[in-house]
C-alpha cells in the first residue's frame, strides 16, 4: 500500500482518504470535555428541577456554548455571553415595555442593540445580544420583564456551573493549583481577555 501525504493528517491510501493511524481513538481531552459537559448538564437539570426555576433549557444551551476545552477559553466565552445577554435583555425589555409587544418594538430593540454594541465596541457580543431581544420579547410564557429576568438568571447559571465543573475537574486531576490559579483567572476574566 503506497502513501503520499497531501497535508498533515490526511494521506492517500489504496483505501481512499482517511486520518492518520491512531486518530480514530478518542483522546483523553475529548473524553474529559464530554464528562465536563455531561456533569454540567446533570447539575443544571437537577438544580432547575429542585428550585422550580423556569429556563433550564437556556442554562443548558449557554453551558454548551461557553464550555470549551480549557478554563481560560471558557472564561472568555462566559464573559461574552453574560455581557451580551445583559445588554440584549435590557434593551429588549425597555423597547418592549415602551412600545408594547409589537413588531416595531422588536425592530427598535434589535437596532438599538446593534448601535449599542458598535458604540461600546462589543463586536464579539453583537450576535448573542441581538438574539436575546426576540427571545425576551416574543416569548408567550409571561411578561417581557419576567422573561428577561428568567433569561438572565438562566444564562448566569449556564456560565457559572460549567466554570465550576471545569475548575473541580482540573483540581481533581492535579493540573492546576487551585489557590494560585484562581486570582489569575479572575483577573483575566474581569479584564476581558
Low-confidence stretches: 10-24
Q: Sketch the topology as an H/E string, one letter per element.
A: EEEHHHHHHH
Report mean pLDDT, rounded to a whole number: 82
How many domain units? 1
How many DSSP helices?
7
Spatial order of strands in the largest sheet: 1-2-3
Q: What is the β-strand count?
A: 3
Q: Which class do the helix and strand fractions yield?
A: mainly alpha
**Major sheet size, sense and barrel closure:** 3 strands, antiparallel
Percent helix, as a range, is: over 70%
Give a topology summary.
Elements: E1 4-7, E2 10-13, E3 16-19, H1 28-51, H2 56-66, H3 71-99, H4 103-119, H5 126-138, H6 144-173, H7 178-191
Antiparallel strand pairs: 1-2, 2-3
Helix pairs in contact: 1-2, 1-6, 2-6, 3-4, 3-5, 3-6, 3-7, 4-5, 5-6
Characterization of the model:
By secondary structure, the chain is mainly α. It has one domain. The chain contains 7 helices and 3 strands; from the N terminus they run βββααααααα. Strands 1-2-3 form a 3-stranded antiparallel beta sheet, with no helix packed on it. Helix 4 (103-119) packs antiparallel against helix 5 (126-138) and helix 5 crosses helix 6 (144-173). The radius of gyration is 21 Å and the shape is globular.
Keywords:
193 residues; mainly alpha; three-stranded antiparallel sheet; 7 helices; globular
Please outline what is shown here:
By secondary structure, this protein is mainly α. It contains 7 helices and 3 strands. The longest helix is centred in the last third of the chain and has 30 residues, at 144-173.
Amino acid at each position: 500500500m503506497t502513501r503520499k501525504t497531501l497535508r498533515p493528517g490526511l494521506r492517500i491510501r489504496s483505501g481512499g482518504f482517511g486520518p492518520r493511524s491512531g486518530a480514530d481513538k478518542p483522546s483523553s481531552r475529548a473524553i474529559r470535555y464530554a464528562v465536563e459537559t455531561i456533569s454540567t448538564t446533570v447539575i443544571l437539570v437537577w438544580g432547575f428541577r429542585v428550585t422550580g426555576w423556569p429556563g433550564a433549557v437556556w442554562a443548558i444551551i449557554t453551558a454548551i456554548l461557553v464550555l470549551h476545552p480549557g478554563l481560560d477559553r471558557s472564561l472568555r466565552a462566559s464573559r461574552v455571553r453574560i455581557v451580551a445577554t445583559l445588554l440584549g435583555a435590557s434593551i429588549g425589555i425597555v423597547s418592549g415595555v415602551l412600545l408594547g409587544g409589537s413588531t416595531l418594538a422588536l425592530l427598535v430593540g434589535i437596532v438599538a442593540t446593534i448601535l449599542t454594541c458598535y458604540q461600546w465596541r462589543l463586536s464579539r457580543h453583537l450576535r448573542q445580544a441581538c438574539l436575546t431581544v426576540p427571545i425576551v420579547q416574543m416569548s408567550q410564557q409571561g411578561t417581557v420583564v419576567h422573561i428577561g429576568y428568567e433569561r438572565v438568571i438562566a444564562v448566569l447559571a449556564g456560565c457559572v456551573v460549567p466554570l465550576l465543573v471545569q475548575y473541580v475537574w482540573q483540581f481533581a486531576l492535579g493540573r492546576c493549583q487551585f489557590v494560585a490559579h484562581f486570582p489569575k483567572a479572575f483577573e483575566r476574566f474581569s479584564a476581558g481577555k
